[in-house]
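C-alpha cells please, single chain.
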Amino acid sequence: MATLENILLWNLMAAVIVLGQARPNVKLNSQSSSGLRSECAANLMRLSLDEALAVGNQLEVEAVNGTQHIVLTPSLAAQCGYSMESDPWGNTRIYTSLMGCYVDNKDDTTFSVGLRLRMYGQSPSDVVSHDVTQTCSYTRWASREILCDRNYMEVSNHLATPDPQAEAKGQSQDVKVNTIPDASGAEHGIWKMTFFTPEPVSMVLKEAEQAGYGATTTSTRLVMRSPYNTAETYSEDVAGVPMEVFRASAYYKAPHGLSMVNLAAACPTGGVLFTDDVISWHVPRRVTPLVHGNFKILEMHMGINGQRLDKPQMAAQGYRLSTTDFHIVIEIPVGSPDGYYKSHAPDYQYHITYIVEPMLEVLWRADDTHDDTRYKVLFPITTPLMPRPPHVQDNTVPEARLFSVHLGTFLHDVVLRNITFSTGVLTVEECNARGFTVQEHGFPNGTKSFSLQVPFDADVVLKHNPERLVTTYTLPLIFGFMIQPEETPFAHPVDVQASLQDVVLPTITGTCDHNQFYISVKFGSQGSNFQAMVGIRELTPEMAEDYHFQENSTHLSLILPYTAQDTVFELITAYSVRARVDMLVFDHNNWVLADLYLSCNFPLMTTQCYPNGTMTAVAVKVESVPNLEPSWLTLRDQSCKPVFSDSRFAYFSFSVDSCGTTRTFFDHYMMYENEISLYYNNKGAAYTSPVDPEYRQTISCYYMVNKTQTVAFSAKQRSYEPTAEIGSGQLLAQMRLAQDSSYNLFYQAEDYPVQKYLRQPLYFEVELMESTDPHLELIVENCWATLNEDQTSLPSWDIIVDGCENRDDSYVTVFHPVVSSARVLVPSHVKRFSMKMFTFTKDEEVLKDEIYVHCEAVICDTNSQADSSCRGQCVHLAGTANSRHQGIKGGVKRERRSTDSSLHRQISSGPIHILNTRSKL
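Here you go.
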C-alpha cells in the first residue's frame, strides 16, 4: 500500500468551477443534490464531493467537535480514523470511521459525524465553506472489528465481563490486574500499551498518541488505530500476500479493576494480479496474525468504494468473489464503470491506467471461543501502465485531392493542442482558420478521437514525382496533446501519403516567318517548375533576354533569329537555308517533359553576280559537318579564302577570272562556276580528317552572250590636245532593309511585305551606287514614314529631319558607323540607321498594320568649299524617352517637300507589316 503522503491528498487541488465568494454554511445529507452526498456504510460514514464543487479550489477538511473545528492534517487523519480518496478531476470521497475521533457516540449504536469543507480560490479572501452532518446507526458489532483503510489500520474489541471459567482455561482476552497505577492516561480509561514488534515495546497513552497511534474506550469497546509503516508495525508474508501487522496489549481501567485486552490488526499491501482484461485481488483466507485455531467463515461480501454490493449488482458488473484453499479472490473486469481510466505519458508515449477501489468484508468465528471477527478492507488498486499507441486511420481518397486522417482513441482527459506541419506549428484554431478541418469525435464509452483534413494543394503538403506522370503527395504531421489536469504533454507523429497520375505535361509549339523562330511553351499542371534547353545550352536569364523571353501564368514564349547561336543549319541552297531549333523542357529528375524540333526554310541569296564580273557567296556551317570551322573553307584555288568569317558563316568575294572559277558556254549564256569546299590537309595540320563528312557548295553565275552591240567608229586627225569638260549625269542611290544589325544580309524584293513586331528594330542602309569617287559623300537629309506607298500621302511621321534624328520621337533614331569592308569600298557612300517599328493610330485605334519608309539623300562634293550640303551627317547619342504611346504614332508632323536638285535623291522602302499589334501594346 502506498505511503500516507502519496495516498492522502487533504490539500486537494481540484479542477472544475470556482464557486465565488464565501457562501453561508450548508448542512447536507444523503438526499442533497448540490454536489455533496453523505451516507452510512456499516461502520463508516462516506461523504462524496463532486468535481463540480471542487474545481479550481484548494480543499481543506475540518472535523466538527461541538463548537471546535479541528483541521484534519494527514497525520491526524490517520490517527483519528479519517481517509480521503480523490481522482484527478476533483471527485472526492471522505471516509470517517464511526469509532473515529470527534464522532458523537451514543452507546455505540448512534453516531453523529460533523465535517466542514473549506474551499480556497485564487485569493485568500475567496473562500467557500460547507458544513456537513450525518447521523448513522450501527448495531451489528462483532466481538472484534478490524478495518483496513487506505491510510490506517483499526481494531476494536468488545469489552465483555470476565468469565471465571474462561479465565481458568486461559481463554479470556481481558486480564485483571489487582493494582491500578497512578500513571498518565488513567483518566481516559487506558493506562498503557505494549506493542510486539515482535519484541515488546511499552508506552503510556500519551506516548502512544505522540507516536501517531490512536486509542480510546467507548461504553462497550476498546479501539486502537495505527497508521501504516509506524515503528511498531511490521511486514509479514501471509499465503504469499504481503501484509502490514501490528499487535499490542492495552491496559485499561474497568469497573472491576485494571484489565488488559490483546489487540491485533493485519492489512494486505499487495496480492494483486493483472491481465489485460481482469484484476485479481487475493486476500489470505486465513490471516494468521489474527487467527490461531480453527475458524469458520460466516459471511463474505464484496463492495466498491466502501459500499457493499449484492449478488445481482456484482453479476451486472461482471464481479466475482470466490475462495480457494488459501485465498479469497475478488475479480474485477478492467474498465468496470465503478473505476476510472487515467492517461499518462511516460517518455512522451501514451499510456493509460485503470483505478478502482474494491472492498472485502469477511465475518468469521473462532471454534474455540465462538467470538466473531469482522474483517473489512478498503483497497484502492491501480493497474500498471498500459501502452495505448493511437491508431492512425488514413481515409484519404486521392481522387478527392484531400488528406483525411483519423487518430485515436484517447481518454477524455486528453486535449489536442497543436499540430506540427512541415512549415511550422499551428494551434487547432489556426488550423481551422487555414482551412485545415480539425474535429474531435466522442464515443459512448467516454473515449474520443481526432480527425484532420488537408487539401493536396496546401503549402504544408510536400510533393515529388517518382514517375513522370505521377505526383506523390506527403503530409508529415506531429499531433501535440496535453493530459489534463496535470498539463502533461506528449506527441504522436503521423505521415500520410497519396499518389495520383495527375501530371499534365507542358507542350511546346513553334512557327517561323522569313527571319525568326517563334516558340511557345504552354505550362502543365506543375506550372513553370521546370528547366529548358535551347539547342545544347540550358536557358539562362541572359539567353532569355536575348531571345525576347516573355512569361505569364500559363505560357512562356521565345523569339529566335534563325541565325541565333543556338540554332543549327541543316541545308543550304542558292536561295535559302534550312535552319532548325531544338528545345527540351525537363524537370529536376532530368525527365524530358516536352520537346520541339522545328525546321524552317529561310530566304538567303547565297550567291550574287555583278555586271563587273564579281561574284559573292555565303557559306554556312551545317549540322552534318559538326567540326567545321568556316574559316577553313576555300574556293577551288585553296589560296582563295573567305574575306569574312565567324563561327557560322564564311563570305567570299572574287572575280570570275580567278580562284579556279570555270566557264561554260550554252546557247545564249555563259556560266561561271566555282566550289566552296573543305579540303583535307595531308600534313594533318588544320582542317579535318578523311573520315569526317565532306562539305561542298557549288556557286554559279550566268551571263547572257547572244546580244550584239554595234559601235560606230571613225578616225579624224586631232588638231589640238584633248581637255576635260565639265559634264553632268545621274548618280543612283538605294535604300535597303537589313535582316539584323550586322548589315550583311538584306531583304529582297520578293520578301516584301516584311513582317515585324511592334518596337522591333528596323535596320536601314542607304548607299550611293555605281561610284567609286572618294570625294563624294552621301547625306541622309530627311526620312519619314507613311501609311501608303505615296511619299506625299498623309498622315506621315518624321524619322530624320535636316540630317538629324527627330528628337520629338519617343524612340529616337540611331545612326550606325560604317567601316570599309569587302562590300563597302567607300564608307562615305553608305549611311546606316535604325528605328523602332511603329504604327499610326487615331483615337486609340490602329489605322493600318503596315508602313512605308521614305528618305531624301543628298550627294555632296567634299572638295568643294561652296557645297554647303557637305556639313556631314548629324550624329548624336541616341536616347529614349518614355511615351505612353509606346511606338504608336498619332500625329502629322509636317508636309513633305520635293526638290528638283540633281544632288537630291528620293528613295522608299517596300511595305513593312506589323505582327501581333494587340499583344505588343
